[in-house]
């Protein structure tokens, strides 16, 4: 195997043409994943709490959003944002914006389920105790329930970030210059070392996901020790 092509183009795999051109490669994949999980957190938080609400005005739209989005392939959602953008907004959305919007909406549905499960995992007495102390339902959720639940959700959020990092490769289908697309461009240009090129991006994806997974395990152990000390 000849890795000369990979070595010569390794910087392109890492950050694309930056600083002389647009950012791409692995750096773009990480930015897409980070932006996606950040935006999805807020959508998921609202939808997760909405699903737990007894008010159908909040509960029913949240259930519809979660169930519909979780039943749609991510690739199809990317296509929807990319091809329906001109119809909805009157102009073509950039490829990166379309992919990021799809990642946020898609991941938000899964974050919502994490939030719902995290809140329901707490003893029901927590809410009852908070309400008996004079707090409203919203105040009890804000000051008592969510701080505990979100702390327990951190490992699940990291796992979702790992999954989204791998899913960013789907953005290459609409031309986003992330890691997979950068590898495709190099392969189409040289036409001599596809095995070496795609083996390299496999290793890069693995290293990123391994670091995140190891972080998740460490957080889980830390949370287990914290809960043991506070029993």
Task: Characterise the protein shown here.
The chain has 231 residues and is mainly alpha-helical. It has one domain: MetI-like fold, CATH 1.10.3720.10. The protein contains ten helices and no strands. The protein has helices at residues 4-8, 10-15, 25-52, 56-70, 74-89, 95-121, 124-132, 137-167, 179-190, 194-229. Helix 3 crosses helix 6, helix 3 runs antiparallel to helix 8 (137-167) and helix 6 (95-121) crosses helix 8 (137-167). The longest helix has 36 residues, at 194-229. The radius of gyration is 21 Å and the shape is flat. The N and C termini lie far apart (56 Å). The mean pLDDT is 89.
Secondary structure layout plus pairing:
Layout: H1 4-8, H2 10-15, H3 25-52, H4 56-70, H5 74-89, H6 95-121, H7 124-132, H8 137-167, H9 179-190, H10 194-229
Helix pairs in contact: 3-4, 3-6, 3-8, 3-9, 4-6, 5-6, 6-8, 7-8, 8-10, 9-10
Give a quick precis of the structure.
By secondary structure, the protein is mainly alpha-helical. It is 80% helix and 0% strand.
Number of strands: 0
Strand content: under 5%
Basic shape: flat
Low-confidence stretches: none
According to CATH, what is the class? Answer: Mainly Alpha
Under CATH, the homologous superfamily reads MetI-like
Helix share of residues? over 70%
Determine the CATH topology.
MetI-like fold
| Total of DSSP H or I helical runs spanning 4+ residues | 10
């Amino acid at each position: 195997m000849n890795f000369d092509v990979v070595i010569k183009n390794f910087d392109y795999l890492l950050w694309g043409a930056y600083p002389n051109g647009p950012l791409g490669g692995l750096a773009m994949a990480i930015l897409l994943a980070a932006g996606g999980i950040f935006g999805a957190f807020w959508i998921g938080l609202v939808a997760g709490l909405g699903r737990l609400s007894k008010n159908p005005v909040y509960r029913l739209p949240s259930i519809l959003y979660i169930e519909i989005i979780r039943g749609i392939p991510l690739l199809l959602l990317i296509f929807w944002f990319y091809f329906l953008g001109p119809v909805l907004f009157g102009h073509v959305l950039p490829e990166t914006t379309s992919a990021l919007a799809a990642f946020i909406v898609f991941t938000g549905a899964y974050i919502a389920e994490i939030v719902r499960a995290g809140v329901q995992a707490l003893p029901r007495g927590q809410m009852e105790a908070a309400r008996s102390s004079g707090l409203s339902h919203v105040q009890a959720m804000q000051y008592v329930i969510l701080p505990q639940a979100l702390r327990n959700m951190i490992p699940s959020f990291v796992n979702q970030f790992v999954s989204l990092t791998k899913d960013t490769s789907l953005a290459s289908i609409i031309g986003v210059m992330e890691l997979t697309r950068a590898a495709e461009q190099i392969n189409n240009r040289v036409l001599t070392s596809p095995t070496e090129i795609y083996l390299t991006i496999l290793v890069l994806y693995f290293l990123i996901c391994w670091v995140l997974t190891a972080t998740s395990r460490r957080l889980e152990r830390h949370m287990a020790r914290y809960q043991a000390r506070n029993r």
